[in-house]
Fold this protein.
Amino acid sequence: MAPFVQSYLKLFFIMTPFFVVSAFLSLTQEYDSTKRIKTALKVTLAVVVSGLALYLFGKYIFDLFGITIDAFRIGAGTVLFLSALSMASGAGKKIDAGEEQDDIAVVPLSIPIAVGPGTIGALLVMGAGVQSTREQLMACAALVLAALTLGGLLVMSSGIKKVLGKRGLNVLSRLTGLFVASMAAQIIFTGVKNFLLN
């Protein structure tokens, strides 16, 4: 599989798209279609901006705090794995539907629902492990495309709910949790292996 496609799929699933869709539907149930689309576009923009900032400046955070990439891989992988377990078991992240509705695009939909601790950890690890400018540009493009795909799902969320129903969304959210758990395990194993070999 091409590295770009691999990066895109990894980033898309780490954003837990089907859980984000169900959270979006829950928090925007009283919105009309125009306001829902505007909120979806704001979420997309917030995910792109926060994701690129974490990806591009993660290595400086490592340098500032003296954290090795492998130590962070182990920590971030563990957090991502715990998030994936809660998704796979159906617990998910808590959604406060009664929260003030004016600001939901950035908090809580973008951060911490789409860009939660696991996503943040994965982005920091990916950014710190990049070797060339070409790889960096490719990963940034994959991140933007993953966020745009997520935004497209949010724009079409009403139609998705009609087709899949609430139960279908829950099943997809749990399947996403299994994929994310596998990615988290790989991040942890890589960190442990490198740590033991050094």
Notes: The helical segments are 3-14, 17-27, 33-65, 69-88, 105-114, 117-128, 133-155, 157-197. DSSP finds eight helices and no strands in the chain. The two ends are 30 Å apart (CA to CA). Confidence is low (pLDDT under 50) at residues 97-101.
